[in-house]
Amino acid sequence: MKNSNSNLVDLGGYRQEKLKENGKELRVFLKVKSRLGYCPCCNKKTRTVYEFKFRDIRHSFWFDRPSILVVKQRRFKCNHCKKRFWERLPGIAQYSRRTETFRKQIAKRALEGHDNKLVAKDFRVGQSTVLRDIKHHSKLELKKKQDKYFPVVLGIDEHHFTKKKGFATTFCDLKRRKIYDVRLGRYESSLGNFLANVRGKERTKIVVMDLSSSYRDLIQKYIPWAKIVTDRFHVVRLTIQKFVEVWKYLDPSGRGKRGLVSLFRRHHSKLTEIQELKFRKYLKSKPGLESLYDFKNEIHDFLRQKNLTRKKMKHQIKRLGHIIEDLKASKFNPMITLAKTFESWQEEILRMLRFSRSNGITEGFHTKMEKISRIAYGFGSPSRKGTN
């Protein structure tokens, strides 16, 4: 197969000479396109070839068959300093017997949650090789992220990392739907230095977070020009929790029934006609429950709004003030606590009504992290001696 298409191996800088295949593997014979060699000592160009050899390089699988690249590597002689050197092959690290594409393929398969032992078996390599490829790929990805600027729309949230190290904070690029960085800790002592020296933070315009005062203080100190927006899910969840606590005072027996709790938590638009009739019948049987449920729905409808115009926001500002006053007028402690929270986060909640994006992307990445942690449960640390 003379002068075949080099896209077969998905590597640039090579010319495909011929192709041999059998039932077990695919062998592709390649030659570097460039006729020049650059001396590593004096950086001069040369065309003088001293000798050559053929190298077998493992490449990514082709239709479940391993592919071997047989590359003709030349040894040049520098006419300036008289040094002899082997040319560097595109897409292949120095002294490596595998292409970078193949190493990346192994690392991605392992990082998707597959067992390292099975990955090693599928790609016909050792488990230690899989670990090396994961570290190599992670370093390359980290270097790419370090060269990028801070996100324009930033999502911040914490998740439990380990028992020893505690919590970690995830910085997510909500606009590009990618993780920017993950840092240990969730307070200024561990995150302050990172936020003070991060590159391109002047680009950040919006920060989405839950009702965390520690994160709010961090952003106001290190990125004071960014607008903070609360995450809608956390505000609605907190509201429902406080109303359920009040329900417990009014009817302790009904609060203990899961079916009633499920109906109370849902938005009234998601109830069927039969469910609403039966639930209304129960609410009317207990004094104060129906008005509590209607007040909960009123706040829920208010918090569900998004993409409001400036003209509509004037009415919503007054409406939030009335909600806070009504909560404060209640004699129940959960209502008063909720009123204080709404008052403290008043600006951020109002921005939430103007803003449509939530922090659900960050929560989704946390779910993937927890899945990887569950799969790795029981495996010892590779840094410990004697670990299999």
Keywords:
single chain; alpha/beta; Nucleotidyltransferase, domain 5; 4 domains; five-stranded mixed sheet; elongated; disordered N terminus
Descriptive notes:
The chain is an alpha/beta fold and 388 residues long. It folds into four domains: 1-96, no CATH class; 99-147; 153-228 and 360-371, Ribonuclease H-like superfamily/Ribonuclease H (Nucleotidyltransferase, domain 5), CATH 3.30.420; 232-354, no CATH class. Helix content is 45%, strand content 21%. The protein has 14 helices and twelve strands. It has helices at residues 100-111, 116-123, 127-146, 188-197, 213-222, 232-250, 252-255, 258-265, 273-285, 289-303, 310-329, 333-344, 346-354, 360-375; strands spanning 14-21, 26-32, 37-38, 45-46, 49-62, 65-77, 84-86, 153-162, 166-173, 178-184, 206-209, 227-230. The strands form three sheets. Strands 1, 2, 5, 6 and 7 form a five-stranded mixed sheet that branches. The chain has a five-stranded mixed sheet with strand order 10-9-8-11-12, with helices on both faces. It has a two-stranded antiparallel ribbon with strand order 3-4. Helix 6 (232-250) runs antiparallel to helix 10 (289-303), helix 6 packs antiparallel against helix 12 and helix 11 (310-329) runs antiparallel to helix 12. It is elongated. Residues 1-6 have low confidence and may be disordered.
